[in-house]
UniProtKB/TrEMBL annotation:
Transmembrane segments: none annotated. It holds the Pfam family Zn-ribbon_GIR1. InterPro entries: GIR1-2/SIED1, Zn-ribbon_GIR1. Residues 8-43 form the GIR1-like zinc ribbon domain. It comes from the Eukaryota. It comes from Gossypium davidsonii. This is GIR1-like zinc ribbon domain-containing protein.
Amino acid sequence: MRYRPEVTSMLLVGCPRCLIYVMLSKVEPKCPQCKSTVLLDFLDEETAKWAST
Ligand SMILES: [Zn+2]
């Protein structure tokens, strides 16, 4: 297994304060601009599963 977890476990989230989308590591989801941890999940795998059922 050669994959690097820090690269593969990325998450696309939206910051409600900055109104931007950012790619973040799941380990430390934090807005790079305002440092807020209150973020909206977008392409989360679990969310996608729930939405499709
Ligand atoms: Zn922000």
